Hints:
The chain has five helices and 30 strands. By secondary structure, the protein is mainly beta.
Amino acid sequence: MIRCLFKSILVSLVSIFLFISVAYSAGTLNSVNGNLFILGKNDMNLPEKTLELDKELNKSGIQNLLAEANRQAEHGCNSLAISDVSDVIDSWCFNTGDNLTNEWYPQGISGVGDAQQDDLWGNKQAFVVSWYHKDKGVRISFLDPETGKYRHVLLVEPYTNSYGNPSYKAVNIHAGGIVWYGNYLYVADTTEGFRVFDMRNIYDLTSSTNGDVSDKDKVGRHNGTYYGHGYRYVMAQVGAWTIPEQQTGSSGCTTDAAPRFSFVGLDRSTAPDSLVSGEYCNPPNPENDATLYGRMARWPLQNSELKTSSDGLAHATAIYPLPKAHAQGALTLNDHLYVMTSAGEFSHGKLYKTTPNGEVITQTAGIGPEDLYYWPARNELWTVTEYPGRRVMYAVRP
């Protein structure tokens, strides 16, 4: 049935894809240890700390944020990252400063198609992209596809400082994948699980009498004034889903290791909706050892949160071995599996797709492709590329 899609050198890869297709369509666990894929809800008293911030700072909604967006993206741009990708149907490029900076790197992508089944947030649509910085943490870009305007928002973790006052700090994680689901933003935290942020807790430092956007080096409360590394808006963390403390073992890439959360996508074709997490793995001999390609896991959702069992924990309902190393994003949709892989700063990545009958389709991807986001209303599969000078959000047909 697979015929001539691959030469003999890829026969092993085809067999892995076939196994994944069968396991996925049947909705069953495979030989990967499912006892490792467990997460517990961990609020860390963040909701109470956020309430204290509410007394200090003014809030802003996403519609207002987009209406006041201060940067302009280019629609239908011809980025070097996708110059050899023949099946691009849409694209957006960031402005020159964001395209060229070597301080912030885009990683995750989501949008209103994940957030709302009616495809609208109020009267707006939006993309969301995560960027990481080695010192300043994570920022999120909200982009309005109607105007091309976008604005950055700094992610922050609330805490109480040594004087007993509400403050916050930068979120120093890689943020390799994001899903905007209802009011919540799920952000992949590589060795821990998911961090959860709330769209209802976006604070506007410019409109707050005790906010300051002039100092790019400060974050949090200093002498009664709140900073956000120069950004006008900060979004507060309200919780997390984390690997239980008793779970031992190294993180990721072997069948007996604790899971790694390198990226995350949403599947609305399941009942209920589910998050799909996965692992980036870089084995020494990727063509010879498929056991080190990493794993994917499905996490059902209920009332916008991970669905828990009678033990109060969230258990992955299906786990699949990834078909290829260097996975940067993956999701499942209507009995199909999509996996985006990268190949360094100067080579094109690959987008892999499996069908229920085991067929494998391979497409050339951009240079430095990352997370995946499916926009149901437009039937578009989006990703974002990460390297300076070659940064672009682009879409293909799934």
